[in-house]
Model the fold of this input.
Amino acid sequence: TVMEQLLGVRSKEKQLCKLLGIDHCLIVAGDATELPKVLTDMGKLVNETLDVILPHGENIIAVMGGTTMAQVANSLTPKLAEKRHLIFVPARGGLGEAVDIQANAVCARMAVHTGGQHRVLYIPEHVSEQTYKPLLAEPAVKEVLQLVDKSSAVVHSIGEAIPMAKRRDMSTATITMLQQKQAVGEAFGYFFNQAGEVVYKIPRIGLQLRDLERIPSVIAVAGGANKAAAIKAYAQLAPQQTWLITDEGAANLILKGA
Ligand code: F6P
Done:
Protein backbone atom coordinates (compact mmCIF):
# COMPACT_ATOMS: atom_id res chain seq x y z
CA THR A 1 0.00 0.00 0.00
CA VAL A 2 0.95 3.66 -0.30
CA MET A 3 1.21 3.91 3.49
CA GLU A 4 3.63 0.97 3.68
CA GLN A 5 5.72 2.47 0.90
CA LEU A 6 5.87 5.78 2.72
CA LEU A 7 6.87 4.13 5.98
CA GLY A 8 9.51 2.15 4.10
CA VAL A 9 11.02 5.35 2.71
CA ARG A 10 10.93 7.07 6.11
CA SER A 11 12.79 4.16 7.71
CA LYS A 12 15.37 4.20 4.91
CA GLU A 13 15.88 7.92 5.46
CA LYS A 14 16.48 7.30 9.16
CA GLN A 15 19.01 4.54 8.44
CA LEU A 16 20.80 6.76 5.93
CA CYS A 17 21.08 9.61 8.43
CA LYS A 18 22.54 7.26 10.99
CA LEU A 19 25.03 5.76 8.56
CA LEU A 20 26.13 9.15 7.21
CA GLY A 21 26.10 10.94 10.56
CA ILE A 22 24.02 13.90 9.44
CA ASP A 23 20.72 15.27 10.77
CA HIS A 24 18.36 15.02 7.80
CA CYS A 25 18.03 12.77 4.77
CA LEU A 26 15.23 12.81 2.21
CA ILE A 27 14.98 10.19 -0.53
CA VAL A 28 12.93 10.48 -3.72
CA ALA A 29 11.93 7.41 -5.77
CA GLY A 30 14.01 6.33 -8.78
CA ASP A 31 17.52 6.99 -10.06
CA ALA A 32 18.43 10.42 -11.45
CA THR A 33 20.97 8.98 -13.90
CA GLU A 34 18.22 6.97 -15.60
CA LEU A 35 15.18 9.28 -15.40
CA PRO A 36 15.41 13.08 -15.64
CA LYS A 37 12.12 13.34 -13.72
CA VAL A 38 13.92 12.17 -10.58
CA LEU A 39 16.07 15.29 -10.67
CA THR A 40 12.92 17.41 -10.93
CA ASP A 41 11.47 15.62 -7.89
CA MET A 42 14.66 16.34 -5.93
CA GLY A 43 14.34 19.99 -6.98
CA LYS A 44 10.76 20.15 -5.73
CA LEU A 45 11.85 18.68 -2.43
CA VAL A 46 14.55 21.36 -2.12
CA ASN A 47 11.84 23.98 -2.66
CA GLU A 48 9.61 22.45 0.04
CA THR A 49 12.49 22.01 2.46
CA LEU A 50 13.64 25.62 2.08
CA ASP A 51 10.06 26.74 2.65
CA VAL A 52 9.98 24.85 5.94
CA ILE A 53 13.41 25.77 7.29
CA LEU A 54 14.06 29.35 6.14
CA PRO A 55 12.92 32.02 8.59
CA HIS A 56 10.64 34.81 7.34
CA GLY A 57 12.29 38.11 6.43
CA GLU A 58 15.63 38.55 4.69
CA ASN A 59 17.53 35.44 3.66
CA ILE A 60 20.80 35.33 1.80
CA ILE A 61 21.17 31.97 0.08
CA ALA A 62 24.60 30.94 -1.16
CA VAL A 63 24.48 28.51 -4.09
CA MET A 64 26.89 26.42 -6.11
CA GLY A 65 26.84 25.55 -9.81
CA GLY A 66 26.46 22.27 -11.73
CA THR A 67 23.69 20.51 -13.66
CA THR A 68 21.87 19.40 -10.49
CA MET A 69 21.78 22.96 -9.17
CA ALA A 70 20.60 24.29 -12.54
CA GLN A 71 17.68 21.86 -12.33
CA VAL A 72 16.96 22.76 -8.70
CA ALA A 73 16.70 26.41 -9.80
CA ASN A 74 13.90 25.50 -12.22
CA SER A 75 11.94 23.82 -9.41
CA LEU A 76 11.91 26.80 -7.03
CA THR A 77 8.61 28.69 -6.81
CA PRO A 78 7.36 32.20 -5.89
CA LYS A 79 5.82 30.73 -2.73
CA LEU A 80 9.32 30.71 -1.24
CA ALA A 81 9.52 34.51 -1.53
CA GLU A 82 6.02 35.22 -0.20
CA LYS A 83 7.10 36.19 3.29
CA ARG A 84 10.78 36.45 2.58
CA HIS A 85 13.22 38.74 0.87
CA LEU A 86 15.52 36.32 -0.93
CA ILE A 87 18.98 37.20 -2.22
CA PHE A 88 20.79 34.43 -4.10
CA VAL A 89 24.59 34.73 -4.16
CA PRO A 90 27.25 32.47 -5.69
CA ALA A 91 29.03 30.65 -2.88
CA ARG A 92 32.18 30.28 -4.97
CA GLY A 93 33.12 31.16 -8.49
CA GLY A 94 35.89 30.47 -10.93
CA LEU A 95 35.76 26.68 -10.68
CA GLY A 96 36.05 26.27 -14.43
CA GLU A 97 32.46 25.37 -15.29
CA ALA A 98 30.67 26.14 -18.56
CA VAL A 99 28.66 29.39 -18.51
CA ASP A 100 25.15 27.93 -18.22
CA ILE A 101 25.91 25.87 -15.13
CA GLN A 102 28.07 28.41 -13.29
CA ALA A 103 26.87 29.52 -9.86
CA ASN A 104 26.18 33.00 -11.32
CA ALA A 105 23.74 31.53 -13.83
CA VAL A 106 22.07 29.32 -11.21
CA CYS A 107 21.57 32.34 -8.90
CA ALA A 108 20.01 34.37 -11.71
CA ARG A 109 17.63 31.53 -12.51
CA MET A 110 16.67 31.06 -8.85
CA ALA A 111 15.87 34.76 -8.61
CA VAL A 112 13.67 34.58 -11.71
CA HIS A 113 11.77 31.53 -10.47
CA THR A 114 11.11 32.87 -6.97
CA GLY A 115 10.86 36.58 -7.69
CA GLY A 116 13.87 37.20 -5.44
CA GLN A 117 17.12 39.05 -6.09
CA HIS A 118 20.56 37.83 -7.00
CA ARG A 119 24.15 39.00 -7.17
CA VAL A 120 26.98 37.89 -9.41
CA LEU A 121 30.56 37.17 -8.44
CA TYR A 122 32.90 38.30 -11.20
CA ILE A 123 35.65 35.74 -10.83
CA PRO A 124 36.87 34.59 -14.23
CA GLU A 125 36.95 30.84 -14.82
CA HIS A 126 40.26 29.21 -15.81
CA VAL A 127 42.69 31.87 -14.55
CA SER A 128 45.73 31.56 -12.32
CA GLU A 129 45.66 32.48 -8.65
CA GLN A 130 47.94 35.48 -9.33
CA THR A 131 45.42 36.85 -11.79
CA TYR A 132 42.33 36.61 -9.64
CA LYS A 133 43.81 37.53 -6.23
CA PRO A 134 43.88 41.32 -6.95
CA LEU A 135 40.17 41.10 -7.79
CA LEU A 136 39.54 40.64 -4.09
CA ALA A 137 40.20 44.34 -3.61
CA GLU A 138 37.37 45.23 -5.99
CA PRO A 139 34.33 46.69 -4.16
CA ALA A 140 31.89 44.65 -6.30
CA VAL A 141 33.66 41.42 -5.36
CA LYS A 142 33.97 42.41 -1.70
CA GLU A 143 30.27 43.20 -1.48
CA VAL A 144 29.27 39.75 -2.70
CA LEU A 145 31.77 38.00 -0.42
CA GLN A 146 30.30 39.89 2.54
CA LEU A 147 26.85 38.67 1.56
CA VAL A 148 28.13 35.08 1.32
CA ASP A 149 29.50 35.55 4.83
CA LYS A 150 26.05 36.48 6.12
CA SER A 151 24.15 33.72 4.33
CA SER A 152 21.48 31.84 6.25
CA ALA A 153 21.47 28.92 3.84
CA VAL A 154 23.74 27.12 1.41
CA VAL A 155 22.49 24.89 -1.40
CA HIS A 156 25.07 22.76 -3.19
CA SER A 157 25.66 19.50 -5.00
CA ILE A 158 28.30 16.78 -4.79
CA GLY A 159 30.09 15.34 -7.81
CA GLU A 160 32.34 12.42 -8.73
CA ALA A 161 35.98 13.47 -8.54
CA ILE A 162 37.42 12.49 -11.92
CA PRO A 163 34.39 13.38 -14.09
CA MET A 164 34.29 16.78 -12.35
CA ALA A 165 38.01 17.38 -12.91
CA LYS A 166 37.62 16.47 -16.58
CA ARG A 167 34.49 18.58 -17.07
CA ARG A 168 36.39 21.58 -15.78
CA ASP A 169 39.38 20.99 -18.06
CA MET A 170 41.81 20.54 -15.20
CA SER A 171 45.34 19.61 -16.30
CA THR A 172 46.35 16.00 -17.02
CA ALA A 173 48.92 16.27 -14.22
CA THR A 174 46.23 17.26 -11.72
CA ILE A 175 43.89 14.50 -12.89
CA THR A 176 46.69 11.92 -12.53
CA MET A 177 47.41 13.24 -9.05
CA LEU A 178 43.71 12.94 -8.12
CA GLN A 179 43.71 9.35 -9.40
CA GLN A 180 46.82 8.50 -7.43
CA LYS A 181 45.31 9.95 -4.28
CA GLN A 182 42.12 7.99 -4.98
CA ALA A 183 39.81 10.99 -4.98
CA VAL A 184 36.19 9.82 -5.19
CA GLY A 185 34.20 13.00 -4.76
CA GLU A 186 34.14 16.75 -5.02
CA ALA A 187 32.13 19.57 -3.45
CA PHE A 188 32.81 23.33 -3.24
CA GLY A 189 36.02 22.80 -5.23
CA TYR A 190 37.40 20.35 -2.62
CA PHE A 191 38.36 16.86 -3.78
CA PHE A 192 38.28 14.08 -1.20
CA ASN A 193 38.92 10.34 -0.89
CA GLN A 194 36.70 7.57 0.47
CA ALA A 195 37.78 8.36 4.03
CA GLY A 196 36.60 11.96 3.64
CA GLU A 197 40.14 13.36 3.57
CA VAL A 198 40.65 16.41 1.35
CA VAL A 199 43.35 15.51 -1.19
CA TYR A 200 43.17 18.66 -3.33
CA LYS A 201 41.44 22.02 -3.28
CA ILE A 202 40.93 24.45 -6.13
CA PRO A 203 42.36 27.67 -4.70
CA ARG A 204 39.39 30.01 -5.00
CA ILE A 205 37.71 32.65 -2.89
CA GLY A 206 34.23 32.45 -1.43
CA LEU A 207 32.77 29.90 0.90
CA GLN A 208 35.19 27.40 2.43
CA LEU A 209 34.28 24.02 3.91
CA ARG A 210 34.99 25.15 7.48
CA ASP A 211 32.50 28.06 7.04
CA LEU A 212 29.63 25.59 6.69
CA GLU A 213 29.60 24.82 10.43
CA ARG A 214 28.12 28.21 11.27
CA ILE A 215 25.54 28.38 8.48
CA PRO A 216 22.09 27.52 9.89
CA SER A 217 20.74 25.61 6.87
CA VAL A 218 22.86 23.52 4.55
CA ILE A 219 21.21 21.56 1.76
CA ALA A 220 23.20 19.02 -0.26
CA VAL A 221 21.41 17.80 -3.38
CA ALA A 222 22.91 14.80 -5.16
CA GLY A 223 21.42 11.65 -6.62
CA GLY A 224 22.06 8.79 -9.02
CA ALA A 225 23.82 5.49 -8.36
CA ASN A 226 27.06 6.85 -9.82
CA LYS A 227 27.25 9.48 -7.07
CA ALA A 228 26.84 7.03 -4.17
CA ALA A 229 30.55 6.84 -3.29
CA ALA A 230 30.99 10.60 -3.57
CA ILE A 231 28.01 11.25 -1.28
CA LYS A 232 29.20 8.73 1.30
CA ALA A 233 32.68 10.23 1.32
CA TYR A 234 31.42 13.81 1.52
CA ALA A 235 29.18 13.00 4.49
CA GLN A 236 32.33 12.76 6.61
CA LEU A 237 33.09 16.40 5.85
CA ALA A 238 29.51 17.65 5.94
CA PRO A 239 28.31 19.71 8.90
CA GLN A 240 25.86 17.95 11.22
CA GLN A 241 22.92 20.19 10.28
CA THR A 242 23.07 19.10 6.63
CA TRP A 243 19.89 18.12 4.80
CA LEU A 244 20.81 15.53 2.18
CA ILE A 245 18.30 15.38 -0.64
CA THR A 246 18.96 12.29 -2.72
CA ASP A 247 17.30 9.47 -4.65
CA GLU A 248 16.92 5.70 -4.27
CA GLY A 249 19.63 5.16 -6.88
CA ALA A 250 22.25 6.58 -4.53
CA ALA A 251 20.61 5.76 -1.19
CA ASN A 252 20.16 2.02 -1.86
CA LEU A 253 23.82 1.63 -2.81
CA ILE A 254 25.04 3.53 0.23
CA LEU A 255 22.80 1.49 2.53
CA LYS A 256 24.08 -1.73 0.98
CA GLY A 257 27.52 -0.64 2.08
CA ALA A 258 28.84 -0.31 -1.46
O1 F6P B 1 31.15 22.89 -9.89
C1 F6P B 1 30.12 23.11 -9.02
C2 F6P B 1 29.56 21.85 -8.44
O2 F6P B 1 28.53 22.21 -7.55
C3 F6P B 1 30.56 20.95 -7.75
O3 F6P B 1 30.95 21.39 -6.49
C4 F6P B 1 29.86 19.62 -7.80
O4 F6P B 1 30.72 18.53 -7.63
C5 F6P B 1 29.30 19.65 -9.18
O5 F6P B 1 29.02 21.01 -9.47
C6 F6P B 1 28.09 18.78 -9.38
O6 F6P B 1 27.73 18.84 -10.71
P1 F6P B 1 26.49 18.04 -11.30
O7 F6P B 1 25.30 18.52 -10.57
O8 F6P B 1 26.46 18.46 -12.74
O9 F6P B 1 26.75 16.60 -11.11
Q: What stands out?
A: Residues 87 and 117 are 5 Å apart (CA to CA). The mean pLDDT is 94.
